[in-house]
Amino acid sequence: MKLVLRGGRVIDPSQGMDAVADILIEGGTISRIEAGISLSKADAKDALRVVDLNGAVVAPGLIDMHVHLREPGFEYKETVHTGSEAAVAGGFASVACMANTDPVNDTRSVTEFILKQARLAAMAQVYPVAAISRGQAGEVLTEFGDLKSAGAVAFSDDGNPVADSGLMRHALEYAAAFDMPVISHCEDQGLSSGGLMNEGFVSTQLGLPGIPTIAEDIMVARDIDLARFTGTSLHIAHVSTAGSVRAVREAKAAGVSVTAETAPHYFTLTDEALRGFSTHFKMYPPLRGASDVEAIKEGLRDGTIDVIASDHAPHSSVEKDVEFVYAANGIIGLETSLAVSLKLVHDGTLTLQQLIEKMSVNPARILKIPKGSLAPGCDADITVIDPDRVWTVDAGAFRSKGRNCPFDGWDLTGKAIVTIVGGEIKYADPGVKI
Amino acid sequence: MTELSRKDMLEIRDLSSEEIDLILNTAASFKEISTRTIKKVPTLRGKTVITLFFEASTRTRTSFEIAAKRLSADTINISASTSSVVKGETLIDTARNLESMNPDIIVIRHSAAGAAHILASLLEQSIINAGDGAHEHPTQALLDMLTIREKKGSIEGLTVAIVGDIAHSRVARSNIYGLTKMGANVVVCGPAMMIPKEIERMDVQVRYAMDDALRDADVVMMLRMQLERQEKGLFPSLREYAQHFSLNRDNIGLAKDDVIVMHPGPINRGVEITPEIADGPASVILEQVTNGVAVRMALLYLLSGGAK
């Protein structure tokens, strides 16, 4: 089966390309990419499918390098199947799923199980992230070598910080020996424990215990110092504070091998959203103040922050339709991440090229996975985006099992209209003729 | 203004000074009922008031119940220990079940900030917040303002010192909103770890030493010090607290001669207030309790449609 995408505006930062071109896909890989591909008669009868894109943006398949698929253990919140279906509906050809399942993804068998479920689902490409420490308890390292050979692409105790600096040092050094990235959830629990939202004027007014920005900043500073000291690479998850952005910027300038991600809610919402006590705005790290939001946007603009990842964290109503204090942390994002992030393009913070770098090229580079490019010979993972499509978020209609979406009811501009994974169309907007 | 056009009483923050005046004026007129031989008027006959208390309370729950009964409403008390909460039912399920029995007003106290807001957004009934976590306790602030107004004639221009664990106090928050709306100068005081971040933006002045807070105060409001509410190790000891943040014979002289001393109760004698001050001539603590009934009568009446 061959597939031709005709007349799209191809934006592939990996090859510095921004031009109207056709793409020919054969056998799951990209075979040609050029203006006005003419098809021979032999081509034309070889079960060829042609999709006319009328100038829509064609990008390397988007990658969300920070999601929670909840399987095994929390299938009532999400499964690999529903999560990866939500991914392709949101334009993501690949996702990296965090290890805080039950059992924790700290052994080969769990990693293999997740990959098996992903193959059965046959939606997005799923890359398991394995735990740094056994049971994510922060005490004993997992079997990095075995987990890598089982298919894990990175190590992270995400959901929990690695409180023990010695353990984190060893994790960075040992992972580097396997050429594997370490993703750090930066939280000093001595400062954050008991907190329910960002510490500031709003928490003071609401009487909710606060989580100060320094709970993140201090850990970011520690991990940057560990990376500097050990000469290893470090990726910082879900950056939410101005202090973290500043620390990462300075570290990069000083030559430390550090990368960072943020999530759409951290550059879109502030802690003002907590007034009214809606649990759909409760997550970790918490929504911060307006100056942090501005700092995150500046960090995205100047390249300090490399990646936008959703931190898709589905929960059921059992965990969310309760008093604020009892509600679980986390919101879903796979089906809104692209559209919310496109706000940065519409408001001039980022170019479309930069956005695609942060949502495809850079995550592929950090995770060292063979994705994020439309060059001939690459896997045919492609996201077609209509950047001007106006649509209204209806969380009730999501493929994800989660309904904990802070953007429910929002009018957003821009949407993935086709998602292709390994040459197969996994999602197509009803408006696209295929 | 002669009627309150709102369904619920959740927070002082969103009340106007006109609404506060209306509630206080109504409460003042209701006070007389409680001095009659037959302390009952038929105003709320046929109305049902449920008090739903997820936190222990004697004073507030009794006050609401007496207020409702003096207006001839039927009252039902539900407290956490006897409710389905222990069986694992969610707050929303509890609320839906109560709603199905068609009460008119639900009074809720809960340890979680925002609990009253959940009920208010889901139910058609009027919801009165009788204290939600460290967020607000609007009826306490209203009865405090009624007491101050009675004693001082007006709230405007007074200096009110609120002393204690401001961070964990819903009484402090509601009073800050109410008193500043009514034109008082509010000073808050307590150990540094009990003063929440950016509280200055609530139009209050912050003092970390008791003497500075008391100087020239017209009203001193002492908060109950609950060491058990503190994070472990946050504050050294009750002894340390009493030495630096109690109102006593020695420091009360810094306040104005006609200062009044208030406390939302229950008081920790010898911790935040010495017995001779709590029972002394400046204390209006028991008058606050009396006014609590009047304020709650006023709210039940106004939320039921008032003069309509």
Structure report:
The complex is a heterodimer of chains A (434) and B (308). By secondary structure, chain A is an alpha/beta fold. Chain A has two domains: 2-58 and 379-428, Roll (Urease, subunit C, domain 1); 61-367, Metal-dependent hydrolases (TIM Barrel, Alpha-Beta Barrel), CATH 3.20.20.140. Chain A is 30% helix and 23% strand. Chain A has 13 helices and 18 strands. Chain A has helices spanning 41-45, 80-89, 108-121, 144-150, 165-177, 189-192, 201-206, 214-230, 242-253, 290-301, 317-320, 337-346, 352-367, and strands at residues 2-12, 17-26, 29-34, 48-52, 57-60, 62-67, 92-97, 125-130, 154-155, 183-184, 197-198, 210-211, 234-236, 258-262, 307-308, 382-392, 411-421, 424-428. In chain A, strands 1, 2, 3, 4, 5, 16, 17 and 18 form an eight-stranded mixed beta sheet that branches. The longest helix of chain A is centred in the middle third of the chain and has 17 residues, at 214-230. The model of chain A has no long low-confidence stretch (mean pLDDT 96). Chain B is of the alpha/beta class. Helices cover 34% and strands 15% of the residues of chain B. Chain B contains ten helices and nine strands. Chain B has helices spanning 17-30, 59-70, 91-99, 115-122, 138-152, 170-181, 210-214, 238-245, 275-278, 285-303; strands at 48-53, 74-79, 105-110, 126-132, 159-163, 185-189, 204-207, 219-222, 260-262. Chain B has a five-stranded parallel beta sheet. A four-stranded parallel beta sheet of chain B has the order 2-1-3-4, sandwiched between helices. In chain B, α3 packs across α4 and α5 packs across α6. The interface between A and B is medium-sized, with 21 and 27 residues.
